[in-house]
Amino acid sequence: MNTNTSAIPDKENIKNNAEDLLKHASDYAETWYEKTLLTLTSKSIKAGASMINGFLLLVLGLVVFLFLNIALGWWLGELLNSMALGFLLLGGFYLLILVVMVAARRSFLNFFRNMLTKMFYE
Questions:
Q1: Within 10 Å of residue 108's Cβ, how many Cβ atoms?
Q2: pLDDT at 67 > cutoff 70
Q3: Does the global pTM surpass 0.70?
Q4: 2 domain-assigned
Q5: Residue ranges of the alpha helices (H) in 1-122?
Q6: Which of 65, 39, 46, 36 is nearest to 116 (CA)?
Q7: Residue 4 domain-assigned (yes or no)
């Protein structure tokens, strides 16, 4: 009676295959972890650089805005022959803008939320 033992895997072969499978799964998990870590690091660096760039642009923009407003207030004051009235008109204009922004704050919040979300996921 000739039994074909090659069709039945031996215990050693099964053990080696299981060890190989476990090693491959472990390698896959480690690679996935490292890829996720690199992706997170990349997004964090982009977000940090964008925040620094945005902050510097904000500071520079505020300085320019300040000087332009001083010049505009001064010019209005000379036109109206009253420096106080020129700066008061300018302050009233910004108060009007503030009231509009407070009244429409939900749409402003949604706009900025969407903008930040797009920046994060790009």
A1: 13
A2: yes
A3: no
A4: no
A5: 11-79, 83-103, 105-121
A6: 46
A7: no
